[in-house]
Every structure is written in structure tokens, then in C-alpha cells.
Write a structure and sequence with these properties.
The complex is a heterodimer of chains A (131) and B (279). Chain A has a single domain, classed as SCP2 sterol-binding domain (Nonspecific Lipid-transfer Protein, Chain A, 2-Layer Sandwich). Helices cover 38% and strands 23% of the residues of chain A. Chain A has 6 helices and 5 strands; from the N terminus they run ααββββααβαα. With 279 residues, chain B is α/β, with parallel strands linked by helices. Chain B has a single domain, classed as Rossmann fold (3-Layer(aba) Sandwich), CATH 3.40.50.1820. The chains are: A alpha+beta (131), B alpha/beta (279). The interface between A and B is medium-sized, with 19 and 23 residues.
């Protein structure tokens, strides 16, 4: 079973789309983002702060402006309960965990720094959750 | 009766390096001067809990000031013609200038992050004029925080630096406190964080200097949060190892901004160190 499965990603989508903070800050968060967990890759299409589409596996036409890529064990530390120091925030991992990589255009990523940060923080604590 | 806090804010005029400055500072309490230095792109508001702690202000005159370009301290005249870049030399000079202007005798200087770095230099250079230093998140060498997207015309700089630093808090620190520091960072001026990081991650290397600190003359207490990934506990340990007699404690459940993100928890670590400064 590849991690994470589509059901988990859909649960993450639902958390993002129901988030009251994202409803405040997400108006300009319209961008396709790749998330790669080991060999498992998704492209999420963000539209005004909502995950409007999930491509899995992404095909040639499923473009992404930027994305995050890491091996499974790194993602598990980030999204598991009580993330350890250095794995508790994506900026921390970008600085201190070489296996966690921002791929694509970092300028576009940082243009969305606030909403992107919120979205990734909503991933935390969700390891065992499917909804 | 109005529900006032004990903090009093004032403006101080001084000349440093031939330039006039209008410096904002806040203070509360009486006793041993405790001069507090904020973080990169922060300001004196970060010390509001310490300034309101009667166990501290009962024995210390707590003073927190905004560096020029920060908070309510304006940049100097002609600021629009220069790129703001803090250096070890200019930072120490400004702290000394405030210290002298206020006539502080043998203060304790407490700083966090870049303030925690510069207190090491101040101790190395001026230890006979100090009672001691308290370094929060102190490193003698801290590369890696600078990047060119911190000040870029296509990026909202306030939100960028606020998010870039938000994860430096421990995940279990109270959310309202973490968000408060986010708000302070979002209010920093364009390029100010990058200019501060120039000191912290580019210019600053105190690894040789700190060997000059004699902790029998100037007490040294270092406290670092376990979730700090900018100044990790290992980085502070390296500084502590170079200063015989230094006390170093790793603060569990705290990140890079202890006085803002979780003052009650910081307090349990800080009060014994302040007691040591009194003794």
C-alpha cells in the first residue's frame, strides 16, 4: 500500500477546505503544488485556498509550480504525533533536514508563504486520520 | 481605576557614531539594571511579560529598547539612501550607547537570538563593567538564516519573515503567544530582518572571542529551547564549552522565542539564573 493513500490525501483536502483561517488568508492561494512521499506523488490544484483537484498519479499535463519531496520516514516524523525538533515545521526541515526538498520555483512558493505554511501545518497530527 | 500595566515607555535621544538616534525603550521595576535585547526584526514588545513579572521587577530595573529601524525607534536620518545591515561592531556600539546614556552600573544584559549572540561579544569585550549576561538561544556562530527572498519585491516581506520564523516556536507553546510573535514580525520594516540576519548569520563569529570571557568576573547563563532549529541546543553547547563556569540549560518544550512564546515556562528556567546574577 503506497503511503499516503488517496483516502488520506482526500482527508487532508477536507481539512484544508474546511479551515476557517484559510478562508481568511487564502484568496490568492491559486497554484498547483506537488507533494512527493518517497515514490508516491500527488499534484494538488489550489484554487482560492481550496484544494480543488488531486492528480494521482500525476500525468504529463499535471503541472506543478513547486512542491515538497521527502522520503517516507521524514514525512512520518512531520505528520506524526509530537513531531521531534527539526521535523516540526517545513521551514525547519528545509534548513536542517537535507532529505526534505523544495522543488520547483521557490519564489512562487514564498509568494504563498502564509497560506502554504497554514496548509502544511494542517497536515500535522493527521498521520492516522483519514478524515 | 484604569487597568494599567507597570510598563512605562519613553524616548531617548542619543548620538552614536556621529548620527543622532531617537530610541524607544520600556522599563519597569527597581534594582539591578537588566537590559533586554530583542530578536532580529523584533522589538521591545517581546519582553512585555518579563516587564510585568513582579518577582523580577521587585529586584531588577528591567529595560527593553528597540534598536534603530525596529519597533518605535526610527532609522537615522538619510535611511533611504542606505541598505540596513547590522554588524557585530554596530550592534555592540548601540547597546553600549544606550547603556551609557541611561547610566547603568554593572547591568545584567539579557538577549535572545541575535541578542543572545551579541551578549557573548559584550561579555568578551566589557566583562568588568557587567554583573553578568543571560543568553537566550545563544550561539557563537550561526550561519544559514540569510536568503535573498526575505526582501524581494514580488513577496510580501512581512508575511514572509513572520512565517519563516513561526516554526521556530515550539509546537506546544500556546497558539496565541506564537501568533503574537508572528504579528510582531509581520510589522518589521522592509529588509530589516535581512539586515539583522546579516549580523546573525554572516558577520557574527564569536568562537574565538568568547574564550576571553572570565565567568568569575561576569556570570554567564545560557538557556536554549529544544525546538530551536536556528540556534540548536548543540550550537549553544559549543559556546558553553568554550566558557569555563558558564551555566547552560536546555529548555524542554520551548523554541527560539521563549519570552514571547511561553513566558510561564521560560520563567521556571530564568528565575534561578537571575537569582544567580543577584548573588
Amino acid at each position: 500500500m503506497p503511503f499516503p493513500d488517496l483516502r488520506w490525501i482526500e482527508g487532508f483536502r477536507d481539512r484544508v477546505n474546511a479551515d476557517p483561517e484559510m478562508a481568511v488568508i487564502g484568496d490568492w492561494f491559486t497554484v498547483p503544488i506537488a507533494l512527493t512521499f518517497g515514490a508516491t506523488r500527488y499534484v494538488l490544484t489550489l484554487e482560492r485556498g481550496q484544494i480543488a483537484g488531486i492528480a494521482h498519479p500525476p500525468r504529463l499535463h499535471d503541472r506543478a509550480a513547486f512542491g515538497f519531496r521527502a522520503p517516507h520516514h521524514v514525512w512520518h516524523r512531520f505528520i506524526g504525533p509530537n513531531p521531534p525538533p527539526l521535523y516540526h515545521d517545513f521551514f525547519a526541515m528545509l534548513m536542517r533536514v537535507p532529505e526534505f526538498v523544495l522543488e520547483g520555483d521557490s519564489l512562487i512558493a514564498m509568494q504563498h508563504a502564509r497560506a502554504l505554511h497554514r496548509m502544511m501545518n494542517l497536515m500535522q497530527g493527521s498521520e492516522g486520520a483519514n478524515a | 481605576m484604569p487597568d494599567f500595566e507597570p510598563i512605562v515607555g519613553r524616548y531617548l535621544h542619543l548620538n552614536e557614531g556621529g548620527r543622532d538616534y531617537r530610541i524607544y525603550l520600556e522599563e519597569a521595576g527597581q534594582g539591578i539594571p537588566l537590559l533586554c535585547l530583542h530578536t532580529a526584526a523584533g522589538d521591545s514588545r517581546q519582553y512585555r511579560h518579563l516587564l510585568c513579572d513582579p518577582e523580577v521587577t521587585g529586584r531588577f530595573r528591567v529595560i527593553a529598547f528597540d534598536l534603530p529601524w525596529h519597533g518605535r525607534s526610527n532609522p537615522p536620518d538619510g535611511w533611504w539612501l542606505e541598505r540596513y545591515r547590522l554588524t557585530t561592531q554596530s550592534y555592540v556600539a548601540m547597546v553600549r550607547s544606550v547603556w551609557r546614556a541611561l547610566g547603568l552600573e554593572r547591568p545584567v544584559v539579557l538577549g535572545c537570538s541575535m541578542g543572545g549572540a551579541v551578549v557573548l561579544q559584550i561579555a568578551a569585550s566589557h566583562q568588568d563593567e557587567l554583573r553578568g549576561i543571560v543568553g537566550l538561544e545563544s550561539a557563537a556562530f550561526a550561519p544559514g538564516r540569510d536568503n535573498k527572498l526575505l526582501w524581494h519585491p514580488a513577496i510580501n516581506g512581512g508575511e514572509m519573515v513572520a512565517c519563516y520564523t513561526y516554526g521556530l516556536n515550539a509546537p506546544d507553546s500556546p497558539e496565541a503567544a506564537r501568533r503574537e510573535n508572528w504579528w510582531y514580525y509581520a510589522q518589521s520594516g522592509p529588509g530589516v530582518y535581512q539586515g539583522d540576519v546579516h549580523f546573525y548569520s554572516v558577520d557574527w563569529d564569536g568562537r574565538a572571542e568568547i574564550a576571553r570571557i572570565d565567568s568569575s568576573r561576569c556570570r554567564v547563563s545560557l538557556l536554549t529551547g529544544e525546538y530551536d532549529y536556528s540556534c540548536t541546543p548543540e550550537m549553544t553547547q559549543a559556546a558553553a564549552d568554550a566558557i569555563p563556569g558558564c551555566r547552560f540549560t536546555v529548555m524542554k518544550g520551548i523554541g527560539h522565542f521563549p519570552m514571547v512564546e511561553n513566558y510561564p515556562l521560560l520563567r521556571s528556567y530564568l528565575l534561578p539564573e537571575l537569582e544567580r546574577m543577584v548573588g
